[in-house]
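Recap for those who missed Tuesday's class. We walked through two folding examples back to back. For each one, the amino acid string is listed first and its predicted structure tokens come directly after. Nothing is annotated here on purpose, so try labeling regions yourself before you check the end of the notes.
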Amino acid sequence: MPQTQNNNKEKLINYAKKVIEIECSNLENIRERIGEDFTDAVNAMLQCKGKVIVTGMGKSGIIGRKIAGTFASIGTPSIFLHPGDAVHGDLGMVSQNDIVIIISNSGETDEITRIIPSVKKIGAFIISLTSSVSSCIGMQSDITISTGEIEEADTFGIIPSSSTTCALVLGDALALTLMAAKGVQKEDFAFFHPAGNLGKRLMLKVKDVMATGDKIPMVDINSKLTQAIKEIDDKNLGLTLVVNQNKVVEGILTDGDIRRFLIKKTDISGALSRNCMTPNPKTIDKENLAIKALEVMEKMEITSLVILNKNGTPKGVVHLHDLLGKKEFKVGY
């Protein structure tokens, strides 16, 4: 490749890195500015009896749509209101029980300052994300979360870049902090995402996603370890159950168990499954929600759970990939 092209490539890479450095620097600044105004805003939303309405113009409006969507996804009723639509009748969406979050870096956006008097007359609570408390929008807000002066990342310092990144991150911080304060759980999140593949699967019961019948990997407790390895490979779940002569589950043998066994003993030709298995595998009831199985796996730091019949024989196995909807996988990759 010609030297000039190499030099050009290096300049482009350096410029891109500079953009990211500038935006990261701005994020560091707003992180340090998080204080009482932020916590007051979260508490106001906790007490809100209406909905959260997010508004912004231009690029800030695009960010606002995303923030409104995030609030809605955690169970906080939220919509995006375009300032232009607001002055043409959509202010009817706003009620006195609502909170209006305004996104404006300058705090002087004309399209927004025009609607503030109407919003205040309606009686809605106003929270603004802006650079200055003393800006027009900042002074008319009930709570102003000030970012301070922001350096845009372009050469001219005028293209919305760092400012929209900061607004997005502040919006996420508000929504996710509110989520934590409200105690929103994974099953709540799944409930508000019924159309998503993950939401659909996590709202199912364990019995709906577990492997059953011939799909359950299983070997006798006195079988050779090499046979167990073949069973693991054939059933492609990264594990096999180890059962006694009455088919009662005595243990579980995973890829991890085998790796740890190999560290201690390289010759496995005479090894038996019982020498390598983990006894008393973790179980779950088939009537539990899939989201519960996922929580247990995360807490125990495991990737599978066993479902047993009353007599201790295996009824099914649920694997992490069954919950996440990954039909085919290779354990360890």
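Example two. Treat it independently of the first, because the proteins are unrelated.
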Amino acid sequence: MTELQTVDIETGPEPQASIIWMHGLGADAHDFEPVVPIVQPDSGRAVRFVFPNAPIRPVTINGGMQMRAWYDLIAATRDAPEDEAGIRASAIDIEALIQRERDSGIATDQIMLAGFSQGGALALFTALRYPEKLAGVLALSTYVPIAQAVIAEVSAANNGMPIFMAHGQSDDVVSFNFARRSRQQLNQMGYAVEWHEYPMAHSIVPEELRHIKEFLARVIG
């Protein structure tokens, strides 16, 4: 297990909820820091945003270049081999952050996992298998990784967990159709996914941030 470095932002004293938000491939813990004042609920309820740094590792799809990554990526095709060992190792690291939040006094069902691209895949993989009820998942421009393992290991504690998925219709990194197949898989597993799509590439747009804020207000606000 790796003890992850984090950037923590609290929207008020004595937070009662936490959002652990994972960045995408090659980014870092500061990537989504600017969205906090945009998406935080208006209720006044204090929330702790936890932005962890992924470990630095070689990434095959980028010629073995060293960068922050939650797991290795072999290729961009749907049928490419997946780095199951890397995904599982990072999931253990995120579970340690969940425990850290619990130890600070945040109830498990008030802890949400969030992430963009590779970080969103990790959020889904970790939350769907977590043995205790979580608040929900915010999955942006992403997909369900090692899907058959998720199906086999899904946790009954998180049946009906709120899941927000958003994707760009012209995403050339994680294909739109790939993401839609992940949504369909989650639907088949019994999850009522809140799905949003936008005329964008592999990015974030203001309308999406407004929808995220509305989701957070309903789930932890």
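Answers for example two:
The CA atoms of residues 8 and 147 lie 31 Å apart.
Residues 6-219 form a domain with the Rossmann fold fold (CATH 3.40.50.1820).
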